[in-house]
């Protein structure tokens, strides 16, 4: 196993997640299998109890792990499925070590940060690195068993059978110099000797600010100095900058930061979209630097899989000119966007990079736009809805439209807000945005604030034939709205917001723990069966059409409340059709109006955004964008 570690300095939020994901995508283009680990130094066990304003969205994995949003970047870029063990936190590590101490596993030793905590971190990394994560992997190992004890390292036969990764990418959250991350850096300092120098490569992401017209290198110099002070020295330095890094800047950084020449100082400047970043790294020969450091060409097990030329794509990358500016030259952009190039002659594993390159450049060339409104509770921090934004972006690429995102604070749509002092202007502005929308997304959330605004958004879209997608709480808002305004149950509500309502159409799930918050929801990947594929008017379910007429789909969940089974039949018979249900048939998963009543009015209890990919958009989001662009009829006709 080879390990590539990404650290960061100067400031947080430089894009370590995008950098490591892009590096992985590039290595996949060379024929390598990759996995990824995120280290978060906070004391929380996981991200599940954090406010979206505090840390952005909580990303949910197949196994129900509630993790940092960077794991979403890894999964989207690399088309892999990670586990909760791929997110290491200080809370997890300390809980595990203290558990061992309480059982007496340390045989009376004084338990200390070094060696016990640092050894635990190293063991965790090595064990998780062997967990297969690609779609073709057919076996899974847990880093710890049910008793919290380290599971056995898989045998050589198991490894061969399960398509274990060749390279493990590790991102260390925060910035070098933070007190909370120091124990992880010490563990990695020891780890480089445990695995050997040919199996370990450290990289560093830094900021190169521009003051006046000069690119300043001192922040990078100080960041690398801090890194070297703990016994770690980078092989590659990624420099984030508004503009392309000048050669003189590269030379200066290489000289003062102890790397092997300016070629190991890479310009990761602002580009027109993040999907250019793997191509930017490829153009600067990062794959060659890593291959030399990790001695990839000397590994016989790679056989014919490793191809650093990417079957000729490496040579063609020089024409992209990404290192000359934010986009390629116009001629190349037009060729790639239209597919009028000779890249179809490239076969093998490089095809994935060809498709990626075309997607990245094609995105730059879209002329028409589509307006999508997101009605949310946490609009002050857009990272709170990062996966929703990415899913909309993926779907907009599929329909070849520029995405024009419009944000509406759910509470601003409520009548009570208009009546508050100073609220009239925001109320009117919010509704003007709603009226301008080609489509509306109402995502999930928790708590009373803004719920009636989400209900109002669902009502507006239903009555005005505006394409609508409700997710989790947005799905429940659909049900509440329909119950109030179609069935006439004026006090219909969720017991989350009104425990005394006489019409509880959404209720607390009986099996959920009411006392503890962390990890107690209905979490992870679960099956949904299309139980009502045909509506009363004979039309097919549009949700099922978007899922390519599958009878069962698997999506990820994160909720405590569900549609009340006792009210399902009444709501269904009144016209809001529950077309998808869990395998028992008692838990509602997908609701929709027939297309004879509405162009696209769909809600789902699960979170489809967590499984969307750039080249394979989430079906519910794809359907919303098709409807918003007036393309859904043709798509549905071709899908029969």
List keywords for this structure.
23 strands, 640 residues, single chain, alpha/beta, seven-stranded parallel β-sheet
Question: Could you explain how this protein is built, in words?
Answer:
This protein has 640 residues and is of the alpha/beta class. Helix content is 36%, strand content 18%. The strands form five sheets. A nine-stranded mixed sheet has the order 13-12-14-15-23-22-21-18-19, sandwiched between helices. A seven-stranded parallel sheet has the order 5-2-6-1-7-10-11, sandwiched between helices. The model is unreliable at 136-154 (pLDDT under 50).
Radius of gyration of CA atoms, rounded to a whole number: 26 Å
- The shape, in one word, is globular
Average pLDDT over all residues: 88
Give unreliable regions as ranges: 136-154
Oligomer: single chain
How many beta-strand runs?
23
Number of helices: 23
Could you give the topology of this structure?
Elements: E1 2-8, H1 16-29, E2 34-40, H2 52-55, E3 59-60, E4 66-67, H3 70-78, E5 87-89, H4 90-103, H5 113-129, H6 156-161, E6 167-172, H7 182-195, E7 200-207, E8 210-211, E9 214-215, H8 218-229, E10 236-241, H9 247-256, E11 265-269, H10 277-283, H11 286-294, H12 313-316, H13 330-338, H14 350-364, E12 369-376, H15 386-398, E13 402-409, H16 415-419, H17 424-435, E14 439-442, H18 451-463, E15 468-471, H19 473-485, E16 493-494, E17 504-508, E18 522-530, H20 542-546, E19 552-559, E20 561-563, H21 568-573, E21 577-581, E22 588-592, E23 601-604, H22 619-628, H23 632-638
Helix pairs in contact: 1-3, 1-10, 1-14, 4-5, 5-7, 13-14, 15-22, 18-19
